[in-house]
Amino acid sequence: MSRLERLVAEVRPGLVLHSLAVHDDEVVLAGGGEVFRLPLAPSGAERLSVLVRALPVLRTRLPVAVAVPRWVGVMPDGSTPFTAEPLLPGVPARELGSIAVGQRAGVAAALADVPAREAAQWGLTGSGGRLLATATLLTDPGRGVLTGAVGWQLRLGDDPGPEDLVET
Fold first, then answer.
1. Do 31 and 98 sit in the same domain of this protein?
2. What percentage of the chain has pLDDT greater than the value 70?
3. In which domain, by residue range, is 26 found?
4. 167, part of any domain
5. Which of 86, 107, 131 is the last residue of a domain?
6. 0.70 exceeded by the pTM?
7. What is the 3-state secondary structure (H, E, C) of the chain?
């Protein structure tokens, strides 16, 4: 069991945890219907802080489910911040069917409607006048529909990259 898994076990005893992702600056663990995000570097902590402010707003504007942190705090070690959010149904989309493509366009349009001034209030930095976002889209492969978006990376800019949801 890793140090971070031990910390989560102190907060939520009895959970069987498994790793969903390990990035350069974040570990994502799941167990008991919850997803725990624990930063490994200052950049991960900064992103977590932005998401705590941004996701409740995006949840009300996007046409797909967005998991909003239920708990935000510091682990028992006194130095590791974390969030815990509900585990959304679905699997990461490998290919999008026609319904999901339409839903993706709706997500992109809703993101494009968020004023950069508002996004800057969440603590986003960057140069540019648009909210740009990357997320992992979850899908129900049997029905061909999006079930949610997770793993958000938000930034301000003018030129979306190929991975951004915002369409030009």
1. no
2. 98
3. 3-86
4. no
5. 86
6. yes
7. CCHHHHHHHHHCCCCCCEEEEECCCEEEEEECCEEEEEECCHHHHHHHHHHHHHHHHHHHHCCCCECCCCEEEECCCCCCEEEEEECCCCEECCCCCHHHHHHHHHHHHHHHCCEHHHHHHCCCCCCCCEEEEEEEEEEECCCCEEEEEEEEEEEEECCCCCCCCCCC
